[in-house]
Design brief:
The protein is an alpha/beta fold and 248 residues long. The protein is built from eight helices and eleven strands.
Length: 248
């Protein structure tokens, strides 16, 4: 049986209402700047921007696509890896680092997408390549990758469960990730999700005041300036706790 997750379904569901930029803004009020080291950089591309927010706990692995595995760089027992993924708490996101730079093949296509979806993954994030975009699109399975290639190369899993780095973001198994058309960020483990959702909702509401005025036939620059001061005064304030993410 899978292990129990750190958060309850209601806490996770509350985050699904928001976009990644809104959640990134909300995380900053807890003293965390996701852009420093808590987010994938611009190399990471969302292949299905029409899908809703991807949210899940990371299950990590490293792969190679360049040369056949050997005694020096052996592959893992893939069946054991599947059993390990199945035992992790969900929802899950497969987070995979291809150790070859650049990747020589796409480990992620219809095969691994179907397998990992069946193992409870909502999507995958890889510093590496994907393919079969037409087939995987039917699965509503998120693809985030730094490359797109037509062949699988010498694809093999070489280890799993340890730290990986994907597009500048270091990820450990169990880390909570969110992703959408804007990219992927990590939600620090010490940020309470119920509070985070409340802050995100308040940020959306306050921004909505600005947007409504900007779209109003009664728009005036002085009204905007006054509202900007009001919104800034009501913006959620940092908690003051030392939760700063260290820069890479």
């Amino acid at each position: 049986m899978p292990e129990s997750p750190r958060h309850n379904p209601a806490q996770l569901a509350a985050l699904r209402k928001f976009t990644v930029p809104t959640l990134a803004n909300a995380i900053e009020t807890f003293g965390v700047i996701p852009s420093n080291s808590g987010a994938c950089d611009a190399r990471m591309v969302c292949r299905y921007p029409h899908l809703p927010l991807m949210l899940g706990y990371a299950v990590t692995a490293r792969v190679t696509t360049d040369l056949p595995t050997s005694q020096i760089r052996p592959g893992v027992d893939e069946h054991a890896y599947w059993r390990w993924v199945a035992a992790q708490p969900g929802p899950k996101v497969a987070v995979v680092q291809d150790i070859d730079n650049p990747p020589k093949g796409a480990m992620w296509g219809e095969w691994n997408s179907n397998v990992h979806r069946a193992l409870g993954c909502a999507g995958m994030v890889t510093e590496g390549a994907c393919r079969d975009l037409d087939g995987v699109k039917k699965l509503n399975f998120h693809f985030f990758s730094t490359a797109l290639l037509p062949t699988h190369g010498y694809g093999a899993f070489i280890d799993y469960g340890g730290a990986v780095r994907v597009a500048g973001l270091e990820v450990q198994t169990g880390d909570l990730l969110v992703g959408d058309m804007h990219g992927v960020i990590l939600i620090p483990s010490d940020v309470p999700l119920a509070e985070l959702a409340q802050v995100a909702a308040e940020i959306d509401r306050l921004e909505g005041e600005i947007f409504a005025l900007c779209q109003s036939p009664d728009f005036e620059v002085e009204k905007l300036a006054a509202l900007d001061v009001s919104v800034a005064a009501r913006w959620p304030q940092p908690t003051g706790k030392e939760r700063l993410v260290k820069t890479a």
